[in-house]
Write a structure and sequence with these properties.
By secondary structure, the chain is mostly helical. Helix content is 62%, strand content 0%. The chain contains six helices and no strands. Helix 4 runs antiparallel to helix 5.
């Protein structure tokens, strides 16, 4: 289901000398806010990920580090969820919410997939903590989909923004 994103990540990992982890989070960078959303039905299957793949190609050629790209993707997901929360009673909220949750889940699914790879360079305890957090996020997304209320989005927004802030900070030692 996420084959295009995973393939893009593997390509980036093979061509990235710095070896940054989880750069495919850039796929979510181009996800539009609900007010900007446009559908492209010309290429079923591929059309769904066309904006994300284009953002990946652009990000790959930019000077942004993997950490900056990951932080931007998580921030973008948080902004989309916050937009849904703020405009809860707006027309089209169901579609916007489903799209924002799907994008957030895709980003975290990519994290999960890459964290479980044997060649992932992160320390084991950090990988386990991020995987545990990602399982919580999966459960919360399902809860929001089953019983949507705006308050349930806040923890997803907070986690994304906090992880993004951590990625933007300078690593120590």
């Amino acid at each position: 289901m996420y084959a295009p994103q995973l393939e893009a990540y593997r390509t980036a990992q093979n061509s990235n000398a710095s070896g940054r982890v989880i750069e495919t989070a850039a796929l979510a960078m181009s996800a539009l806010l609900p007010s900007d959303f446009r559908k492209n039905d010309e290429a079923p299957g591929r059309a769904m990920y066309a904006p994300q793949l284009e953002a990946y190609r652009t990000a790959k050629n930019s000077t942004a580090s993997g950490r900056e790209i990951e932080a931007a993707a998580l921030t973008r997901c948080a902004l989309r969820l916050a937009d849904c929360q703020k405009n809860w009673d707006a027309p089209g909220r169901e579609e916007a919410l489903a799209d924002a949750l799907r994008t957030n889940q895709q980003v975290w699914s990519i994290f999960q997939s890459e964290l479980t790879r044997n060649d992932n360079p992160l320390p084991r305890p950090l990988k386990e903590n991020i995987l545990s957090l990602s399982l919580f996020i999966d459960k919360r997304i399902i809860q929001v989909m089953a019983y949507p209320v705006p308050e349930k989005l806040q923890i997803l927004i907070d986690i994304n923004l906090n992880i993004a802030a951590g990625l933007r900070s300078r690593p120590t030692g």
